[in-house]
Amino acid sequence: xxxxxxxxxxxxxxxxxxxxxxxxxxxxxxxxxxxxxxxxxxxxxxxxxxxxxxxxxxxxxxxxxxxxxxxxxxxxxxxxxxxxxxxxxxxxxxxxxxxxxxxxxxxxxxxxxxxxxxxxxxxxxxxxxxxxxxxxxxxxxxxxxxxxxxxxxxxxxxxxxxxxxxxxxxxxxxxxxxxxxxxxxxxxxxxxxxxxxxxxxxxxxxxxxxxxxxxxxxxxxxxxxxxxxxxxxxxxxxxxxxxxxxxxxx
Length: 250
Fold this sequence. Notes:
Blueprint: H1 2-15, E1 24-30, H2 44-56, E2 60-61, H3 64-73, E3 81-88, H4 92-104, E4 108-112, E5 120-122, E6 128-130, H5 134-142, E7 146-150, H6 163-181, E8 187-189, H7 197-205, E9 210-212, E10 219-220, E11 231-232, H8 239-248
Parallel strand pairs: 1-3, 1-11, 2-3, 3-4, 4-7, 8-9
Antiparallel strand pairs: 1-10, 5-6
Helix pairs in contact: 1-8, 2-4, 6-7
């Protein structure tokens, strides 16, 4: 029933798409793109439809670094800007999402839980999902399309552990990515969207320039770089709901 109501509202909003706010961007948040029934997963079929829609309707899929520059330097906004982000680093991102990103030349950022690289993650459902390994990560990174950034070592709720533990989780995951991929690891996604000012201070002190939350909404010029909202795309996200997320942050 709840999903039906969302579909009805989304369908209604699509009639008034011309009222969508200007000078904004949407950051889409994905996790697994695979054939499982985990709520945060998107099926390969639906992911393909969503990316085809972005291409067909001429959304400008830009990198997270590009969006950060726009906000920091107050640059002109691209029309219908979209940023693609993936949390945790599931192996199915390489198997199913990567070929479609390559097909459309869409940039994306994958936030890696560094301690699970090459291993697996046990979900609340009991399912075991394999995680990306370094050869897959390196292949995507070398393409220039996919950027990899830290998502801590073990995916804790950062504001619920000591500040010393939080700093270790952040800096060690940052160091792992720098060591294997080179360059700078300057973007971060808060596990579970949990953070506080102390966590932001740790990020700033270690050279990060922006961080992503799980709070819903569109990114606007007044958005704070360390509290950027995202729109989650999940198993039950219909195409109508996908459209309303893009245009209204609903």
